[in-house]
Write a structure and sequence with these properties.
- This protein is α/β, with parallel strands linked by helices.
- The chain is built from 13 helices and 15 strands.
- The structure holds magnesium ion (MG).
- Magnesium ion binds near residues 212, 214, 239, 240 and 284.
Length: about 375
């Protein structure tokens, strides 16, 4: 039997002979994945119904092929249950897997990455985004052009006003959101606090408002009463009113609510979408929840087939993640892509915030590049 060690020894001898003859065997570049943990510094303390924070953990990824580099990231809010450590562990395993493929084998490479371990969807998104960006850069075309997406149709992005106990802090945030045509406010505390936030906004502006209760409302009757009050105060959409597990009460609420009800925490990935028809009016897709652009595109198609509305959202992300998500924004009804605006130390530039929209550029890939 021919032993593996014999084969390896023979291969080495052959390589030495070829080298002595001046013949190189390694002319083809390989896909090279590198990564580094990064701490995003928030411009304001960010609070939702369950916690608050000043920084946000991220892992930045680069995938290079020859002179081309694609940029991605995993943005990791606490509730996602992935950490910088778990993402780096996953990426370490992905390095040799990625290296086996060429950029035009992106689909196969992403399937192989998926097979490394279940879940780890932010880590998978960090690879998916970088690989898509790289693919576009090698093609010399923006992804929206490769996918026949009309860049003129980017919706206004909302800007999120987090909860704060101080009126003056909330008012300062509303002033800072002057550029935004739509505001989003995080509710789901007490009735008094929720109404105080809306009243403060209405003292300053009559802009349309999206409300995200982040599962904070206790029951369906309370939620419906709040929604009727919110509608009178210019709110136009409600995200995740109650606990994500509570499907029957969300169905009851969606049947009665005058405002569209959108699933966020209840909708993580493609396999969640079908069961949400009738339970919610629409879904909020985030690259970090679903594992990247490939899965997100499938979710948009399925939601449309089911007659559901679509929102594209984000975590607190750099311009690597936001530029990727913005590529799909012309296909959706609501965009919540203010993540890079919330960060004070974004290492990248990509989409351009113009007249309240994350505007797609003609740069190749996602359009992301180092500042
Ligand atoms: Mg949400």
């Amino acid at each position: 039997m021919f032993h593996k060690n014999h084969y390896t020894a023979m291969k080495k001898i052959l390589l030495i002979c070829l080298t002595l003859l001046g013949i190189s065997c390694s002319t083809r570049p390989v896909l090279q994945l590198t990564y580094q943990p990064f701490t995003g510094k928030l411009r304001h303390t960010f609070a939702i119904s369950t916690y608050s924070r000043d920084t946000t953990p991220i892992v930045l990824t680069q995938i290079s092929y020859g002179d081309y580099v694609g940029y991605g990231e995993a943005a990791l809010p606490q509730y996602l249950r992935e950490t910088q450590e778990s993402v780096c562990d996953f990426l370490e395993k992905a390095v040799p897997v990625i290296a086996q493929y060429r950029p035009d084998e992106m689909e196969q490479a992403l399937e192989a990455v998926k097979a490394i371990a279940p879940d780890n969807r932010a880590a998978k998104a960090a690879i998916d985004i970088a690989l898509h960006d790289l693919y576009g850069k090698i093609q010399g075309k923006p992804l929206w052009q490769i996918w026949n997406i009309n860049p003129e149709n980017t919706p206004y992005t909302c800007y999120t006003i987090g909860y704060d106990a101080s009126d003056s802090v909330v008012l300062a945030k509303i002033v800072e959101a002057d550029w935004a045509h739509i505001l989003k406010v995080k509710l789901g505390r007490s009735e008094q606090e929720d109404k105080r936030m809306i009243t403060l906004i209405r003292q300053c502006t009559d802009k349309p408002v999206y409300v995200d209760a982040n599962q904070g409302w206790p029951d369906k009757e309370y939620a419906l009463e709040m929604i009727l009050w919110l509608q009178e105060h210019g709110v136009v959409m409600i995200e995740q009113p109650m606990a994500k597990e509570n499907m029957p009460d969300h169905r009851w609420l969606t049947e009665r609510s005058p405002l569209p009800i959108i699933a966020d925490e209840a909708c993580q990935q493609l396999s969640d979408v079908e069961q949400l028809k009738g339970v919610y009016d629409g879904i909020n897709i985030k690259l970090m929840k679903c594992g990247g652009l490939g899965e997100a595109r499938k979710m948009i198609s399925l939601a449309r087939e089911l007659g559901m509305q679509v929102m594209i959202g984000c975590m607190t992300e750099t311009s690597a993640g936001i530029s990727a998500a913005a590529t799909l924004s012309p296909l959706v009804d609501y965009a919540d892509l203010d993540g890079n605006v919330l960060i004070g130390n974004d290492p990248y530039e990509g989409v351009l915030l113009q007249d309240g929209r994350q505007t797609l550029t003609t740069l190749p890939g996602t359009g992301c590049h180092i500042r």
